[in-house]
Each structure stands twice: as structure tokens, then as C-alpha cells.
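[User] I wish I could look at a protein chain and see how it folds. I have put the entry right below:
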Amino acid sequence: MNKGELIEAVAAAADLTKADATKAVEAVVDTITRALKKGDQVAIVGFGSFAVKSRAARQGRNPKTGEEIPITARRVVTFRPGQKLKQRVEAYAGTKQ
């Protein structure tokens, strides 16, 4: 599912116009992004939590040449699914076999 499909699904599920659903999805994404930029964790009960973690600098390898290259330290976004989401996905996966 891409962003356009998500907007259409939200519009249908919440009985909104596509324009209103677009504003809602954009607002949620922007709010989560701003919170993560500040270093806050975003927890959505029943869905999961987003957090920013720091990765230390390290040595990597160029897969083509095998040459060692430095990889700089960086901050990355992580997502940890909530228990309800895990259960729903597992239940759905069991019916797809």
C-alpha cells in the first residue's frame, strides 16, 4: 500500500472526502516526524511505537571491491509493533494459507 492508497482507504473508512483524508494523513505523518526529530518516542496503543536510535560509526565494506569504508554515526527511526497488531497480523496470516 502506498500513500495514495492509504488516503483512499482512510477516506472510505472514515466517510471523508479525499481532500480531508489527505489532510488527516499528512497531519499524522507530520506530527510523528516532528516528535521524532525532537527525540521523542511516539506510541500508538494497539499499533506500535516509533523511536529514534543512534548508530555508532563503524567500518563497512564496499561489496564490489571489498575495500573497507568508514560508515558515519547516524540516527535511525525504528518501529516496534504493538501486541494487538502482532496478533491481528498472525491471525490474518493463518487464514491466508
User: Anything to note?
Assistant: Strands lie at 42-44, 48-55, 58-61, 68-71, 74-81. The first strand starts at residue 42 and ends at 44.
